[in-house]
Amino acid sequence: MPTAPEPEILAAFEAAKGFMPVREGLALYEAAVGAGRLGLPLLEVGTYCGRSTILLADAARRSGVTAITVDHHRGSEEQQPGWDYHDPSTVDPEVGLMDTLPTFRRTLRKAGLEDHVVAVVGRSPQVAAFWRSPLGFVFVDGGHTDEHAGADYEGWAPHVAEGGLLVIHDVFPEPEDEFTGQAPYRVYLRALDSGAFEEVSATDSLRVLRRTGAGI
Ligand SMILES: C[S@@+](CC[C@H](N)C(=O)[O-])C[C@H]1O[C@@H](n2cnc3c(N)ncnc32)[C@H](O)[C@@H]1O
Fold it and tell me: PANTHER family given for it (predicted)?
């Protein structure tokens, strides 16, 4: 029987602005609850407005651990003005740049999950460079270029504890299916090729990998 969120958490997730589809969100939640049993923090790269963070926060709450979510809150390439995934309401009119932090904070507040999340505002490689603690779960959903997705993998995968999970979003093995590039797919292949991860599950474009050894 899969572990599903309570109806009010699912409703908050579905109402939140963002990019995580429901089926993948449910798979993400199940993986996060399972990984929470290790008693280590759960970390996400790519907060945006907090849609997936709701699920990680609730999984963390259930396990008595903390969810950490990292984002510079200035948006990815494809979310900038003029691109397909741009939402004009995310632009701060005073500085003329995207700022998803206020919406994220409201989202988390409304869901009643603020106490279970530490939000880190910064560039993922810069945060990873000083990170020293093992993690039970790393969810990679940040920038989708090779530069950014590759740096997320290099920065965070080494911190996944043995038995912990690395979850990658937007993995599209077929070039015709992708909509923001195949960099996450290349990261997924890199993780498997390293010998340090084995695949646990695939739900649409979401891949769950378990750390089984050193190797990275
Ligand atoms: C696809 S969105 C995340 C969607 C979110 N997980 C959801 O469920 O809706 C990607 C996010 O990654 C952030 N991002 C992109 N590159 C980043 C980097 N190098 N460091 C930190 N955040 C980054 C963007 O600001 C954006 O908010």
Answer: RHAMNOSYL O-METHYLTRANSFERASE (PTHR40048)
Active-site amino acid positions? 144
For the chain, the structural domain boundaries read 7-20+43-211
Q: Please tell us whether the domain made up of 7-20+43-211 is placed in CATH 3.30.379.10.
A: no
Q: What is the pLDDT along the chain (216 residues), one digit of tens a residue?
A: 679 999 999 999 999 999 999 999 999 999 999 999 999 999 999 999 999 999 999 999 999 999 999 999 999 998 999 998 999 999 999 999 999 999 999 999 999 999 999 999 999 999 999 999 999 999 999 999 999 999 999 999 999 999 999 999 999 998 776 667 899 999 999 999 999 999 999 999 999 999 998 777
pTM of the model: 0.97
Among candidate residues 62, 61, 97, 63, the one with its CA nearest the CA of residue 80: 97
177 Cα distance to chain centroid: 21
* Ligand 1, pocket-test mutation among 45, 138, 139, most atoms within 8 A of CB: 45
Ligand 1 atom nearest to 49, measured from its CA: 9
